[in-house]
Amino acid sequence: MPTYPTYKLGDVAEIINGKNQKEVVSPQGKYPIYGSGGIIGWATDYLCKENSTIIGRKGTIDSPIFVNRKFWNVDTAFGIQPSEKVLPRYLFFFCKSFDFKKLDKSTTIPSLAKRDLLQIPIPLPPLPTQHAIVTRIETLFAELDKAAVHLRTAQQQLKTYRQAVLNHWLNNDDGKWEMVKLGEVAEMCLGKMLDKNKNKGTYQPYLRNVNVRWGGFDLDDLLEMKFEESEQDRYGIRKGDLIMCEGGEPGRCAIWNSDIPNMKIQKALHRIRLNDNVLNKYVYFLFVLYAQNGVLGKYFTGTTIKHLTGQSLKSVEFSLPPLSDQHRIVQEIESRLSQATASETYIKNALQQAEALRQSILKKAFSGELL
After folding, report:
1. What confidence tens digit (pLDDT) does each residue in 333-360 have?
2. Number of Cα atoms under 13 Å in the Cβ half of residue 134
3. Counting runs of H as helices and runs of E as strands, what totals does the chain give?
4. 91 within a domain of the structure (yes/no)
């Protein structure tokens, strides 16, 4: 296994500080303006030559960008311009392999210092070897890219399949099922307005909008506030209740099945307690479908920030089959969606493995193991 001579990054590349773009920004500019996350505008002048690499100075510090044209970089991004000793793509792939986070000394926003970048050791074989390494990396990455395209296509197809399953089983009544409004088959309540000055009652945990996800709950950051004895039933939730977001992403909901005692809800959430002849999972799947196909949007209020008010929620219409049919429909949906979930998990793991393989390829490339 060959050992490549090592240089400091500052010896083989020029690190160009970014500048404020206000003097050069123009819709008619021919040079892209780059921040640490990508193009943010156009400029009439440039700071870096073509075939340079961008590294974030603040914010996104671990996602190098290769630019094959002249560009202007703003003050949150460094431009790394290779000398004649290093091939541009070799330098870029080295930056992709390097862990810039270990140079971050900030306590809030991730940031890098130029003096630290200048001292980064970079293995540097002769130019022909650099070229061979780059060619090998790009060949392997192209194969991974091709596989990733197929995997992401399959991901999208599974999303389409999920909606098709819901649409088939929830809209297959031939006009025989009863049309109802949610307010006719459920008791609903908005949660309690947060009152930091209230000194009565006992501290109890409550759910906020951010705790409710589609189909489940994120309970890692539960807060508490005081609830009086008279508020226990009004704002309390129990197993089987459907908890739904009033704002944020109106309609996002999940069925509460936790054993956490004395859980309450804040005003940003609706509690929906269905009648005995209505299955909560059936209604949950209806809201998933309505959110996907845009039906739910017609019940929103507000022009910029959308809300699903209690009155609007009560008016949501849907067809309601007999309880036995609801059970059968839910069973059919769950059976098919569980298969889709298994496939989605497989695809997610495969994409993660592909990304890990990219890092393995880069590690081998700069340790002399790839050729």
Report:
1. 999 999 999 999 999 999 999 999 999 9
2. 18
3. 9, 20
4. yes
